Structures are given as C-alpha cells and as structure tokens.
Amino acid sequence: MKPVAGKTLYLVDGSGFIFRAYHALPPMSRPDGVQVNAVYGFTNMLARLLSDAGAERVAVIFDVSRHSFRTELYPQYKAHRPPAPEDLIPQFALIREATRAFNVPAIELEGFEADDLIAAYAAAEIAEGGDVIIVSSDKDLMQLIRPGVSLLDPMKNKPIGAAEVMEKFGVPPEKVVDVQALMGDSTDNVPGVPGIGQKTAAELINLYGDLDTLLARAEEIKQPKRRQSLIEHAELARISRELVRLREDAPLPVALPELDKRQPDPEVLKEFLVAQNFRSMLSKLLGPDGVKLAVARAAATPAPTVAPAPGSVTMPTPADAPRNYELVQTRDRLDHWIARAHMVGQVAFDTETSSLNAASAELVGISLAVAPGEACYIPLAHGTPGGQLDLGGDRPQQIPLIEALDALKPLLLDPSVLKIGQNLKYDMVVLEKYGVSITPYDDTMLLSYVLDGGKHGHGMDELAERHLGITTISYEEVCGKGKKQIGFAEVALDRALAYAAEDADVTLRLHSVLKARLLLERQVHLYESIDRPIPTIITAMETTGALLDRNRLRELSTDFGQRMAVLESQIHEAAGEVFNIASPKQLGEILFGKLGLADQGKTSKTDNYSTSVDVLEDLRASHPVPGMVLDYRQLAKLKSTYADALVEQINPRTGRVHTSFALALTTTGRLSSSDPNLQNIPIRTEEGRKIREAFIAPEGHKLIAIDYSQIELRLLAEVAGIDTLKEAFAAGVDIHALTASQVFDVPLETMDKETRRKAKAINFGIIYGMSAFGLAQNIGVSQGQAQAFIRAYFERYPGIRAYMDRMKAFAKEHQFVETLFGRRCWVPTIADKNAARRGFAERQAINAPLQGTAADIMKRAMIRVAATLTETKLPAKMILTVHDELLFEVPENHIDEAIATLRPVMENAAGSVVSVPLICEAGVGQTWASAH
C-alpha cells in the first residue's frame, strides 16, 4: 500500500454552491430569525466535499460584486440580472464565515469574477505540476478543461471532461470561448452574433478553426443572412469573446502554498455551528463531546489522463498489454515466483498493509512482478480476526506469514537481484518490524524526483498516467470510501489480486522508463550517491523513533491551558466584555468596532475584518488586546498541536513517536516530516522551546544535537564567490558583525548588539528575497532606511547581486536552477505573466541553489554518519533530522567519543565541492531542549 503523493487542488465555485443550496432547501431560520437555508446547504456540501475528496489543496472562490473589468468593457454585461433574493443577501457573509470555520480559504478579488480567479489558480497549479478539480457544473468554466484540469458536478458527483464538453458544445474545451463568442449568452447579456446559435457556432468554428479566421473569411459564407450578420457584427463577436474568456492572468490574492488543506480548529467550527443552530450537523461533523473532528481525508479522485511528459523514454510494452496476474496461495507457487525473480535478476516489490502509517501498519500481503504484465499477489492476512468478512469461520487459503517471509528473505537480500519499489521506504519500515531488510534496490518515486523534482507529483498513480498512459485501480474501488471503507484484509482475494499485482506491474514498467532517463539527463551520480541510499537511513530513524515524556507533555498542556484561561480573563477585561477569542468575526467586531482601532483589517465592504497575525502585530502597539490575543493563539496552538496531540501519537507498542519523512515532496530536495510533523516545532519562543523538553533520552543515555552553523550564508559566499565572506568564514570571524562593519561603517571593536542584529536580518533576508518593506518591519526602521541598508549591502558585496541576476536569468532560460551537486530545482513559473507568481519564482531561483545544496549536504552527512556508526560500532542512534540538524541518542559513557567522531563527518560531508569551511555545533542534554 502506497501513500498518495503530489498536489491536487480543489477549486470550489462558491456562487454555484450558494444558489444550489438556496434553491434546493426550504426556508430555514435561526432562533434570531436570520434565514440560513443557503448557509446550511452550503455548509453541508462543503463538509461532504472535504470528507470525500482527495484534495491536498482547497479553496472556495467567491464573487465580490457585479462590477468588473467586463462592465468597463461592455456596460450592459449582466446589467439585466435581478438582484439576489432579500433573504439570501444576509447569508453571503455567513457563508464566508462557514468557509473559514472549516479552515478553508475564502477568496475574492475586486474587479474580477470568481471564474477568473478559478482560471488563474488552475493555471498556477498546473504550472507547478499539480492537478485541478473545479467543483462546479458551470458551462463557462468548461473552457478551462485540459490535461490535469477537470470539472466535478457536486450534485451528481459526476466528473466533466473533454468528452462532456464536446457533447455539450460540439467543440473541444480550447474552442469553447469562440463558440460562446458567436452564440452569446442571454443570461449574462453577452451579445454574440445575431442569428448564430450554438449548433451553427460549433459548425463554423470546426470548419474555420477559430473565431479570427472565421471573421477574416466571412465573405466565403454561402448563407447570405449568416454571412451578412458575421460581417456586420464582427466587433460584437470580438467583444463577446473578451467577455466570456476567463482571465488566467488574474492576480492571486492568496499564494498557492496557503491553499494546502488543513484540518479545521474544532472550537472554531463548533462555535460557528452552534451559532447557526445546526445541531444535526454539529453531531455529524464533531464527536460526541463536540471536540473530535470526523471530517476525514479520503484518497484522491483519479486524475484525468495526461500526455506523457517530454523526454520520456518509450515503454517496452504497450499500456494495454495482456496482464497475467496470479494469486499465490501455496508454497510451491511462491517458490516458482521467487525462482523467476532470481532468473530475471530483478523484481518489482510492494506491500499491502492495514494502515498508511508505516510505524503502526501490519502486513496484509505482498505483490511481485518479474516482467511487464506478469505479476502475482501473495495474501498473508486476509480475513484475520477483527475483520468484517463473513468467511463462514474459515480464512481463505494463504501461506503462513512467517513461512512466506522466511522464503522471501533470501531474495530480498540477494545482491544479484535488484528489488524495485515505489516509495520503498514505506515498505522497508513495515518489513523492519518483521526482521526483513531489502537490498539492493531502486525506487521509482526517487528516480522521478531526481529527474523532475518539483515539476509534478511523484506518486505511482500520477506517474502511471504521465509516463505509461495507464489509469490505475484506485484504493477506493477495492475498499470503498468514507464510513463504508473496509481494511485491505477484508477485501475479496480476486479484487485484492487485481489491485496489488497492478501496483507491482506498473512499478516495474515505470522503472524501465525512468531509469533509462538517468543516463540521458546526466543524473546518475545524484541518484546513486545521494537519493538512493537515503531510504535505508530514514527507515532506521523512523523505526527507532523518539522517546517522549508523557508527564512533561501533560504538565505543559495544563500550564498552557491555565495561562490561556488567565489571558482570556485579561482580554475580556481589557475589551470590556466577554466574547469568543477564537472567533475571527467576534474578535474583529471588538477590535475595529467597539475599540475603534485602525480598520486596516477590513477585507472587503461586505466581509468580516481580518484578524490575521500580520494585522494583530501591526495593532500590538495600539491597544493591549491584540498582543494578548497573539499570545493566546500561540498557547492554544502549542497546546492542541503539540502538548495534547503528541501524547496521542505515541506508539503503544514502542512507547515512542515515529514521524514519517517524505523523501520526494519539496522542490529543493529537503526532507519533510509528518504524522507528526516534528520539523515545525517552534523554537524561537520560550513556550515553543518547552515542547522540546518532552523529547528525552532513555535512562543511561543523553541526546546529542549536531547542527550546521550558518550553512546557507556559507553557501552564498561559495556560489556568489564573495572573497571577503569566504575569508571571514575561514578565519572564524563573526559574519554578522563583519557585515555590520562593512555595511554600516562601524569598527568591529565597537560593534553593538543592535547594529549586529540589523546586519543579521539583512544577511538572512537577502537569501530569502526580503523586500525593503519586510526588512523595515523586521528591524524597526523606515522603509527608506531599509532600502538604503540593502543598497549599501549590495554595493559592498556586488557579487551577491550578480549571483541573484545570474540565477534568475538561468531559470528563465532553463525553467530550473541547480544545486552544487547537480540537483535540478524546477521553477516553471519564472516567466509567468502574473507579477506575483513571477516574483515568487524569482525568489525561489535565488534561494533554491542554497537551500537545495544544504539539503544535499545533509543527506550526504546522514549517509556518511550511518556508515561511520557501522564501521566504528559506536552505540549511537540517529533518531531525527530537522533541516540543518541531526539528533542522536547515545549512552552517557560514549558522549565525548560520539561528538569527536560524528562532528568531523558532518563537517566534511560536502567534500571538495564546497571550499568554504562548514562548521557544526554540538550540544548535549537529557532533553532535546537542553541539547541546544
């Protein structure tokens, strides 16, 4: 079983949801008399979508008003539309509140319609290699359908693709705009060409190819009335085209990464549902105690078929080649397949398990493939106790699990047989619990990641579509979804065979495509020396896990809760009334209504006030409430996300927490952590650092934290060729003090902390593309002063500006930049017409070689550290990696030896590729916090 990878963006047509809900439900009102039938229907549809859809990103897009660039172009556009029903108008704001209660962005932009924003977000996601599902049946959105973009009718739960567009309009999606321009639209008052209906418009566009060609050749039309109408109303047709064409270059009010799907805050959602008196929905969405969310994430809807990626190698067998799949239920047939693998010299391998969390997953079955179309499935735990199958008291015939693993072990360790997997680290973690290891191996996910990085996702289903033209069987097809979903151990064996054997078969076929590209695209060394060895290292880390102090977490939870209660009282006292601090609406009314603070928090004329972190930070000096609310929010997040959640994530079998590291998710090659995410534990505040106090060493051991000091600044000096900085790093000079001295013309011997702090902000800000405005906010100076500091910085270090310009130019030419080790970090939006997207890509182009090289160095360090631990038999365990840091668990009597052995390994991990010295700092403690 393989976790789903890649980005799928769901864009919800808010207006479509609203009006469907309003017209579908009878009048409903809250106890205060406010109509909420549209709110109820909208909330119900959104909850169902979030539960059933496989969205990694999601947003609801709304219209602001009827005034847009289209009404400037053609004042009659939508002019005859009646106003919204009076009882619906008050519900618009509540519907936006509902969206935010589910922690989903509610996006709108003055001057543009919702359809334009949907078009722009779809284009942006596709440019980043993702897929887009537009939740709407609106015909105007059908022009956006293309490989990777489809519509989903929310009422019928029916996908709408190119075939449905052809059926409706008589033309493919890319020609819908021309047809609409000719036929017009009476609903929106789009004029079109008089006398031209849909059927005629489709015939003309199919005949002449496009609108411009048709209008240029209108004299050729045989029918007199049609010819005359096209000639006389050609300009109307062109205007109509501009009215119906959606603006894919519209600005993005919210950046794409901010659309990443997030679980709702239970208290915020509960408060909203209670306020609307939605009792049945409250019971449905929240647990009995009104806290536990039941909005579960399901697996993704299969993405539409897309053409093979450019540069793909032709697969050796067609996608529709015969599939000979066998269910292996006896030892002699298992031995047959093992013999085949030995004879062929390679075998694709996959596990089916009870959970996507590898640390807690139990093995259910194993699939093998030895040639395209030739695969088998070995069931090992189907119909086991606790399942829901009615097997008449008898389990299906299966080889005993231990016997099967004993037979497979020699094959999985045979150095003459290459094992091929997709996200093989997952299978390694599962099998490690059974004492089974895998070597040597190739991983198709990592092959794809090395070749195509951030261009697209690297999950098997997406890769099969992209490179093989195969739409794989989805997990839901065999297990169901939602509350009716069953475990894989309960799946009938014939269905399990089709699904599991296909996994191994497709993995084998992908391997033949991707492995051939490595040599052609000169990525062999990166894959072989950095990415391929990593799964073994990470498997050991994930299997070991980190020990947590449950009592300390409970103490922190109690402490945070008590401090929240105190802050709550202080906030209410300062505000002069009791209100729900977690409600953005109520907080906005207090801050901007009752207290009369500056109203820069207003998001629109009809919307609520913004109470984001940035807004509250700006207001901190104006009144005590904003600062206290920020402190309250921080404590609430630490309590719920870490102090409370980490206790629940301790594995009962090991007593430890086992995070999962994603190896192919980031653009730069960095590892990311989830379930739980241990890389996002805040360390810049005292409260955040306290969470690390709960990570402890077992009795008789200590934790050693070794991290790279200022690695990205050192790499900047390297790649930009700044001799002054390189010499300073070589001499061990305080780089921030040196920068302050150079930029502010202050002697080193008289350097004060404040001036050094400003230089530090500039040093790190330059790497991340910080603007003068951002720097001014960071160090508390005017924007003009900040701009002068940046100008002085570049004048003193002109090589940095040259490096930045060089990276942007390279990215514009090649669509990627490279790390010092040759990893390609793709930035496909570098030439985007949208200034915001282009600017973000330019900052990526500057930072990615630095962050990516640092990530490559960390991986090289982990590989070398693991080898050193084996060679020296040093009793130390590598248990976590967090960006530039490695955390070790070491017996107390080996602390000095471990530091003396491991720190030089890490400092020399870059080899001769980096001339600037890399320095590592080591700390020791009983807890992770005290090791810093």
TrEMBL record:
- This enzyme's EC code(s): 2.7.7.7
> Which residue intervals define the domain DNA-directed DNA polymerase family A palm in the entry?
688-894
| Gene3D superfamilies in the record | 3.30.70.370, 5' to 3' exonuclease, C-terminal subdomain (1.10.150.20), 5'-nuclease (3.40.50.1010), Ribonuclease H-like superfamily/Ribonuclease H (3.30.420.10), Taq DNA Polymerase, Chain T, domain 4 (1.20.1060.10)
InterPro entries per record: 3'-5'_exonuclease_dom (IPR002562), 5-3_exonucl_a-hlix_arch_N (IPR020046), 5-3_exonuclease (IPR002421), 5-3_exonuclease_C_sf (IPR036279), DNA-dir_DNA_pol_A_CS (IPR019760), DNA-dir_DNA_pol_A_palm_dom (IPR001098), DNA/RNA_pol_sf (IPR043502), DNA_polI_H3TH (IPR020045)
Q: Mind telling me which SUPFAM superfamilies this protein's record contains?
A: 5' to 3' exonuclease, C-terminal subdomain, DNA/RNA polymerases, PIN domain-like, Ribonuclease H-like
Q: Give the record's keywords alphabetically.
A: DNA damage, DNA repair, DNA replication, DNA-binding, DNA-directed DNA polymerase, Exonuclease, Hydrolase, Nuclease, Nucleotidyltransferase, Transferase
One Pfam family assigned to this protein is: 5_3_exonuc_N
UniProt record, GO biological process? DNA-templated DNA replication; double-strand break repair
- Residues forming the 3'-5' exonuclease domain are 325-519
The catalysed reaction is: DNA(n) + a 2'-deoxyribonucleoside 5'-triphosphate = DNA(n+1) + diphosphate
Q: Which GO terms describe its molecular function?
A: 3'-5' exonuclease activity; 5'-3' exonuclease activity; DNA binding; DNA-directed DNA polymerase activity
Keyword check for Zinc: no
Domain 5'-3' exonuclease, by residue range, is 6-262
Tell me if Ligase is a UniProt keyword of this record. no
Q: What functional role does this protein have? A: In addition to polymerase activity, this DNA polymerase exhibits 3'-5' and 5'-3' exonuclease activity.
The family annotation for this protein states: Belongs to the DNA polymerase type-A family.
The cross-references to PANTHER family, in alphabetical order and at most eight, read: DNA POLYMERASE I (PTHR10133), DNA POLYMERASE NU (PTHR10133:SF27)
* Subunit note: Single-chain monomer with multiple functions.
Q: What is this protein called?
A: DNA polymerase I
The scientific name of the source species is: Elstera litoralis
From which lineage does this chain's organism come?
Bacteria, Pseudomonadati, Pseudomonadota, Alphaproteobacteria, Rhodospirillales
